[in-house]
Each structure stands twice: as C-alpha cells, then as structure tokens.
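Reopening this one. Same input as before:
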Amino acid sequence: MNEPSPAASRIRVVRGAFRPRGVRWSPFVVEKTGSTNRLWRGSNGSGEWLLKWYRYPKAGVHPEAEISQFLQEHNFEGVAGFGGRLDLNGSQGWMTIAFVQRWLEGRSVWEKAVEAMRSGGTGHIFARDLGRSVGRLHRALGSGARGTSFGVDPWSAEAREAWTQRISESLMRLRGVCSSACPAGMSEGAWADAKRLCLAAIQQTEQRICELSTLKVAGDVIRIHGDLHLGQILEVSSATLKERYVVVDFEGEPMRSIEERRAKDSPLRDVAGMFRSFAYAAAVAGVSPQVAEVWNTEFLEGWNEYMPLPMGDWTGFVAGLVLEKALYEAEYEVRHRPDWLWIPLRALSNAL
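Same output, byte for byte:
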C-alpha cells in the first residue's frame, strides 16, 4: 500500500482494495445514538463498500482505519476489509477525514442476544463463540513486533496510573453532568433520584481508587477495540470468510480523545465492555441480571481459549474495569439516552 509524501499535498490517500472508479454512493442511515459519522454505501467492480466521513476529525490517524489496515495486512478475517483512508494535513497536523471498508451483510449480535435471553433457552451458548472470536481478535491485535504500535507491552505502573486517572476524569465529568439541568424526556423526580445514585457512586468510587491502584495484577497491554459491545459485532454468512462473527466500528469510546483511543490497554477492558453489554441485553429483554452472569462466564471461557488471564487478582481487575465502564455509561446515557440511565445506575448500585 502506497502512502504519498506528506509534503506533496494537503491530502494523503492510503489505498487498500477499494477503487473509486465507477462507484455509485447512496446515503446509509443507521440508528446510532451520538453518531459522529456520515455514512454512504456504494458498489463498483471491486465489490460493495461503506464510506465513512468523520464529522469532527481530530489530529492523528483514526484508530478505526489504522486497526483495519493492520488486521488486513496480517490476514485476520474477523473484521470488514480495509478499503482505504483519506487524511488531511490541517493546522494540528495530519488527521483522518474519511475511511472506506468492505460492506458485509450480517445481523447485529445485539438483536440475537436479546432474543436468546427472552427465549429463556440455551441461547447463551453462542456467548462462548463470541468469546473465541474476540480472543482471536486480541491475539491478532498484539501480533506486531515488540516496541511497535501493535506489539505487546507489559501492564506497568504507568498503565495502572493511566487507568486510575481515567476513572478520576470520568468521575469529574459525571459530577459535572449531575449539576446540569434535568434531561429532556425525564421527570424532575426521576432526575433527582438518578443524581442521588450517581453522586453516591462517585463518592464511593473515589474511595476505591486507591484500592484499585494497588491491585496485584500482572498482564499485558495491546491495542484494543475500546468500545466493544454486542452492537459492534455482526453475525455473517459468507463463503469467503472463516469467521462467523465479525467485529466492526473500531472508533473507541466517542467521548475520549484520539490519543486515548489509540493507546494500548488491557484486553480485559474489552471483556468488561462485553460483560456490560450482556447486562444491557438482559435489561432490555426483561430478564434477571443473573442471566447476564451466565453469559459472562461463557464468554470469558471462550476468550480464554485464545488469550491468557493476567497473573494475580484478575477478578478484582475485571470488577474495576466493569465499574469504570458503568460510570462512563451513566454519563453517556444522561447526555444521549436518559431513558436508559437506569441500566448503568443499577450496576453502580450493585457494585458499590
């Protein structure tokens, strides 16, 4: 893949399998809260493609395009194929403004999980297969040479400090959200109850940060998805793909900076994201939270077939990561989807 000299132009094209000649685009609309992309679907002689224009590009290579390119170059089939990316050299340096990936027909695993939980049957068994798929993804993301962006590094004191600092920043933002006006569509009484629970969670998490910072755990950090949940996985049926489940949207958490989203982290952070997603699915399906616990066990066992668990108190580490994710969710739901705020609040109430 060629990358023209940055000095040659303010525009830089990194080419993959996509060829623009003859393509016909049409707007593609998805129900995605807080989306920062404009999407088009198109096709030509090289296949069907999805084009993303980033509405608010930030300095640096976008993690979605970067990860997609790396995984394709390393023959990993559990993601949509890399088509290419377009960078712009602005006042803050190079930034990715558009990204093309191969279009894949598939069904959202979120829908499949909610249906399986509602059925009350043995549908949770496929959670183990999801774990295997994510485990293979993590193994590929850490397959680069040591010292490179996609190599494996040890979980260090610096990584632990960055983690607890991230939690502290989440607490500050959530405290700020709690001081804002009642969200649209929410009653004043419900908002008062929600604020009370959020503030209690903030206070108790502040007391736990010291405990989390001294956890005895030793593992690795790699590039990760960063915002993994059931809605980011497709079940596909393709004769050309070996993987049944394909992970998409490697953008990371939308409220974090590009630097944070490109940083290496423990792959258990993605595992914690899936645990929280199973909890969301159980809530929407109207079943007991204990149902999600069964899915968590299945998923983790499948993941562990391909990725090692850290040495030391890894269960305490995962619990801390799940708590961090629930705090992030509470802030997100207040800002974008207040009707769902009760889901992370239930988790925070149980965890503290």
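So the earlier flakiness isn't reproducible anymore. For the record, The mean pLDDT is 89.
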